[in-house]
Design brief:
The complex is a heterodimer of chains A (about 375) and B (about 45).
Chain A: H1 2-17, H2 20-61, H3 72-77, H4 82-93, H5 102-113, H6 130-134, E1 151-153, E2 158-166, E3 172-176, E4 179-182, H7 183-187, E5 202-203, E6 209-210, H8 220-223, E7 239-248, E8 256-258, E9 263-271, H9 280-285, H10 289-292, E10 295-302, E11 305-312, E12 319-322, E13 344-347, E14 355-357, E15 362-367
Antiparallel strand pairs in A: 2-7, 3-4, 5-6, 8-15, 9-10, 9-13, 9-14, 10-11, 12-15
Helix pairs in contact in A: 1-2
Chain B: E1 2-11, E2 25-26, E3 33-34, E4 39-42
The chains are: A alpha+beta (about 375), B mainly beta (about 45).
């Protein structure tokens, strides 16, 4: 307000004096003023976001579960050209910054989104743009891989939103309390996804459902032909369940995806959907958020059976770079306005072996815009 | 951005002694912060 008053006073003085020099002074004041106003506005928005996050955190600690509540703002989001906004943001973020300003910009980003700059592999002034900084690699040893051979590791840095076991036919993953989506709608029609038919479900000694191991044509046996690891036949008594885990990556998190186990990626699917934001508020207000957004699904098999990773894009982090298929481009301009077109699928060769990944290998990265 | 992992893993069942010899268990809680390489879950190799 004081800035606006000062600005109005300056303008009034320049109009009274009518002098060219005073007018130019007013113009020169306009640019830093606008910059200051933008910084103040961004600061206010950030403070509001932090306050909202704190409230949510407190609610979660008190055991209050966030519920699905569709709102008008979420409906309005559908009308916005989110893909164009995402692409424009990507364009802005990829602009090369002057060397002297880079450390200031990246430190501000890190402060706002709680990034650890000590882990960055390169000095800050070596990242030419915010986009490059965002997908930075980390120093060797920053992310030690759990050496336990009987553990499945996290593929990303992030916050655990949901996890659990999918039981019974038509099992659903909960987006938030009050709204769920099916695995098949997230992954697409998959020949590898274990079919959990009601008649297949048994009860164990504790009354819990257990699902027998399903053998299909593209079994681990065929995959293991290309692998030096020789596996014993699975005992008839051994059974497997289908599990899931949803991990949210905040803007300040390390944005590269690693392999959670040793596995063979057999199929890649690309769903060119929408690009809604994926924050906590969006999750509780936008229906089918994870099923509607643009995403890449990698599907294959590991020693225990089925394995799939779905990397879901958002408005600001709209494109996904796949290291095992560098020619794949996501967040492209849409050729048509239909959002329900079938996914584009690629089966990796050789069939039934696909691409072999080791636990901890880099698989993909999320890019800005 | 969000990553969703879906996978098959061993669940407990041994027909001979009915003991939980090989079972996958998540070792995380909702709201936990996790890093690449940290265990999401473990099982015991029978």
């Amino acid at each position: 307000t004081s800035f606006l008053r000062k600005f109005q006073t300056t303008q009034a003085r320049s109009s009274i004096n009518g002098g060219r020099s005073n007018s130019s002074k007013g113009d020169s004041f306009l640019v830093p003023g606008a910059t200051l106003a933008t910084i103040v506005m961004l600061g206010a928005l950030h403070a509001r976001r932090l306050y909202g996050d704190k409230k949510l955190e407190e609610a979660r600690e008190n055991g209050i579960e966030i519920e699905f509540q569709p709102d008008v703002k979420a409906t309005f989001l559908r009308l916005l050209p989110l893909r164009s906004i995402s692409r424009f943001w990507g364009f802005l973020a990829s602009m090369e910054l002057p060397i002297w300003i880079r450390p200031y910009v990246y430190r501000s980003w890190a402060r706002a989104f709680h990034s650890n700059l000590e882990e960055a592999a390169k000095p800050l002034d070596k990242y030419a743009s915010l986009r490059e900084f965002f997908v930075r690699t980390l120093k060797d040893g920053s992310r030690p891989i759990d050496s336990d051979p009987c553990c499945l590791i996290s593929p990303v840095d992030g916050t655990i939103l949901r996890f659990g076991e999918l039981k019974g036919a038509g099992s659903m993953i909960e987006q938030v309390k009050g709204f769920s989506y099916s695995v098949s709608s997230l992954l697409g029609a998959s020949p590898f996804l274990p079919v959990i038919a009601e008649e297949d479900i048994q009860q164990d000694s504790e009354g819990q459902e257990i699902i027998p191991r399903h053998e299909n044509k593209k079994s681990w046996w065929r995959i293991s032909l290309a692998s030096p690891k020789v596996r014993d036949p699975a005992p008839a008594s051994l059974t497997t369940g289908l599990f899931y885990c949803v991990i949210y990556l905040k803007p300040g998190d390390y944005h590269r995806i690693h392999s959670p186990v040793d596995w063979n990626v057999l199929v890649r699917r690309h769903f060119s959907g929408r690009l809604f934001p994926l924050n906590e508020r969006a999750a509780r207000t936008i229906r089918n958020l994870y099923v509607e957004n643009e995403r890449i699904v990698l599907e294959g098999r590991w020693q225990e059976g089925f394995m799939a990773i779905a990397a879901i894009g958002a408005t600001t982090i709209g494109s996904i770079e796949l290291f095992i298929e560098p020619e794949l481009w996501t967040n492209q301009t849409r050729k048509n306005l239909l959002h329900s077109e079938p996914p584009e699928e690629r089966v990796y060769e050789p069939e039934a072996v696909g691409v072999m990944l080791k636990k901890g290998d880099e698989v993909a990265a999320f890019n800005m815009g | 951005s969000t990553v969703i992992l879906i996978f098959q893993a061993p669940i407990s069942k041994s027909l001979e002694d009915d003991s939980a010899s090989s079972e996958f268990r998540f070792c995380i809680k909702r709201g936990d912060r996790i890093h690449v390489g940290e265990a999401l879950g473990r099982w015991h190799d029978s």
